[in-house]
Amino acid sequence: MDIKHDRQEEIMAKDFRKYGQPTRASFNSGWSVRPKVGFFSELRPGHAAPESISLPHDALVGSARIPSDSGSNTGYVPGGAFAYSKEFDVPNEWIGRHVAVDFEGVYRDAMVFVNDDFVAQRPYGYSGFRVDMTPHLRHGERNVIRVEARAHEDSRWYSGSGIYRDVWLTVGGAVHLDHMGVQITTPHIETDLGVAVVAITLRNSGARPRTARVRVEILDQEQALVAQAEAPVTVLPSEPAVLRQRMTIENPILWDVDSPNLYTAVTRVFDDGDELELSTTVFGFRTLQLDTAHGLRLNGRIVKLRGACIHHDNGPLGAATIRRAEERRVELLKNAGFNAIRSSHNPLSPAMLDACDRLGLLVIDEAFDVWTESKSSFDYSLRFADWWERDVEAMVLKDANHPSVIMYSIGNEIPETGNSLGAVWGRRITEKIRQLDPTRFTTNGMNPMVSVIHRLAEAGRNMEGGVNSAMNQMGDLMKNIATSDLVTASTEESFAVVDVAGLNYGESRYELDRRLFPNRLIVGTETFPAKISENWVAIEQHPLLIGDFTWTGWDYLGEAGIGRVNYADEGPQSFGAPFPWRTAWCGDIDITGHRRPVSYFREVVFGLRAQPYIAVHPPENFTREARPTQWSFSDAVATWDWDVMEGTPMRIEVYSAAPEVELQINGESAGVRPAGPENGFRAVFESEFAAGEVTAIATNADGSQERWCLSTPEGLPVLTVRPDRSMIDASDGDLAFVEISLEDDTGRVFRQGAEPVSVVVEGAGVLQGIGNGNPESQDSFRANLCNTYEGRALAIVRPTGAGEITVTVKGANQTATITIVVATPPAS
Question: Which residue intervals define the domain Glycoside hydrolase family in the entry (predicted)?
């Protein structure tokens, strides 16, 4: 999808004229991409023409998947190398200006060229970085920026590749704001006043010292002015200058997960009376406290982290971090009962941080999956020693103004954490973070078994698939290892480095660590989905246990099939599933945004759902012996639509916090079973299928009752199409998510069968992606058709300008059409 060059430059010029002086503008449109070929191969004919695209973009998401022995890690998507390029005009008015491009993320080993001059490199795919184009520009003519990116055996999951996050163009004066040059802290907060310290870093690209004036205005949520300050700053060409403005705000309204109130700091830079640059920075007032008597407190209130680990891909969009997709994930995760996310295992996108700020979700942002020891053949460990400090700086500078960020994680399952030199590395990273940002806490997601993996190497070698397979196969042995004296002694120093001990699959240590290390605070940084019922009871009881983060909150591409339910007649169990599996299938929410039964089970455990919830096991598996993986929950689904004969044996689960649940089928009792915390919040019934209605009646201790039912759909399926919003913005960051389903007249979804549906988008938009939740689907995300899965599919539409978008969906025998209005976004 592309916006024409002239349209992009019109938008850019308009944005720069908005305040009568240069400012910041999107640099996402007008790009092209093609596979990168060798230098001398460029001279040979026959190469594919470049594809015109708009950023963010994932160059791998449309690739043909290939069966291979090790392909389950990436969902059987091979790697590749890609070259992006963009032409843009540089007017003569920019002579003497500072011109930079800010990349929020390029995966991976980015190389940047301006007019064929090499200007920058960034090996890590998750770090934002600035490219100063000023010395390389040709004024009064068209210029070319080129970015190369590659992905090859460097990740344990689907990474995508390319310029997958937003890109921004900034044109400032000779004196200009540094990259991430406005940092705000709130060191003093009382009921009647709050203090915001705005630290502004300026640089001078000129040849002589210059004195600029900097004005800062703070606006509240209603955009009313609540504080302002102004001062001169002399900036030498050879060194940055920092201005700190200490500003008082009366009666500050605090940011909280339930009331995410935000303030905006508007920073203006003047030189000789001309306004050269304007920047807006969103921040919030909130307090954090951490101690073993109370655990974690936000604004003085104890908060238990109901957490979701998430990967960075957006399902049918691949790795493309389009802002609306990130916002929608935050909306749906919060609606599902989560109040926190852990970015796994890399720094979160600015777009998702913005959404967490606006919507009220707490964040643990994670720096690395590897340090000095590799987990994949060509991963970041090859670059870590030279780049870790710059990448930590990039993460902290990105996060520092976001009230949603409460903690930094320095790593995930790092093998070095079990030895003293690994603890030294952990201390280096942690102290670097504390130096940059002393206002937040630190953790490290340590897996007890991984920390001593070298001493268990023989066991690992005898288990196909390495450490993840070992974890899956060991079962109770893994608990014994986690609580062993070996792990206790080996990890003590690494845990002492951070503020909160992060435990991956280490809940067996909770009680032990409470006795051995009474000052150690613990968070379950990664836990098996089925463990939440027992984990949450412990977390609620003990202040030093501050939360649980399930693996995972949202299903993701790669690590294919780790959450599947195997059966004994399928042969030996392995960590990764065979082709054509493509998603992990361990998420509470599938890749289209549809909640799975485990999500409702978790909501019951959290105490957020009073009604029971019903999920039904596929009847064809009634007599088979299930062998779930450690990441499995259940293969039960929430439907009473089964293509079987009346009287077929059925196994039905009911999730409820009530002590007792009755199941009724068409008004006749199928039995009463205990539920509630004492029974893992789950009652299991065996009955027989009869079309109609299955009802769960939960009886509470006080005699009150809650009901929930599933009904068999009636009549013929109706092709139903619903956009998440009927009006969207004409912005490269907006999207419309169009849900497609086969329903009866009352909205009940027909689960049976996979019906092919095609999607045609006309008008002011394009089809950006299409897909379903099927973890082993072979449908392409880049096609215009796919099959429904359990009666559902999803089309994602991206606007190309103001106007109307017509979306036509064709099923086997039906057609449905909707219209989406694309409005010009209001001026900020």
Answer: 719-813
Please state, in angstroms and rounded to a whole number, the distance separating the CA atoms of residues 516 and 577: 40
Dist. CA 443–CA 364, nearest whole Å: 9
Q: Is 523 helix (H, G, I), strand (E, B) or coil?
A: strand
Under 8 Å between Cβ of 156 and 376: yes
Q: For residues 286 and 40, what is the distance between their CA atoms, to the nearest angstrom?
A: 57
User: How far is residue 600's CA from residue 598's CA, in Å, rounded to a whole number?
Assistant: 5
Confidence class for position 40, pLDDT limits 50, 70, 90: low
DSSP class per residue in 431-500: HHHHHH-TTSEEEEEE-HHHHTGGGGHHHHHTSTTSHHHHHHHHTHHHHHHHTSHHHHHHHHHHHHHSSE
Residue 387: its H or E element = helix 381-399
**Domains contained in the chain, CATH given:** 5-54+80-151 (2.60.120.260), 176-283 (2.60.40.10), 315-605 (3.20.20.80), 613-638+642-711 (2.60.40.10), 718-823 (2.60.40.10)
User: How many Å apart are CA 137 and CA 522, to the nearest integer?
Assistant: 52
DSSP state of 74: G
Please say if the pLDDT value at position 783 is more than 90: yes
pLDDT in tens, 170-181: 999 999 999 999
Q: Would you place residue 39 in the very low, low, confident or very high pLDDT band (cuts 50, 70, 90)?
A: low
The 3 state secondary structure assigned to 86-149 is EEEEECHHHCCCEEEEEECCCECCEEEEECCEEEEEECCCCCCEEEECHHHCCCCEEEEEEEEE
How long a stretch of residues is the chain? 828
Place of tokens 């954090």: 288
Rounded-to-integer distance, Cα 77 and Cα 50, Å: 21
**Residue 445 near residue 343, CB atoms below 8 Å:** no
What is the H or E stretch that residue 12 is in? helix 5-17
Q: 477 versus 782: which is more confidently predicted?
A: 782
Amino acid at 305: L
- Residue 70's pLDDT is what? 80
Give the Cα separation of 150 and 163 in Å (integer): 10
Region label for 278, one of left (φ > 0), alpha (ψ between -120 and 50) or beta (otherwise): beta
Helix ranges, 644-787 (H):
none
Alpha-carbon distance 9 to 11, whole Å?
5
Range list of β-strands (E), 152-240? 167-172, 175-189, 193-204, 210-219, 225-235
Structure token digits, residue 614:
């019903």
Tokens representing 308? 């979701």
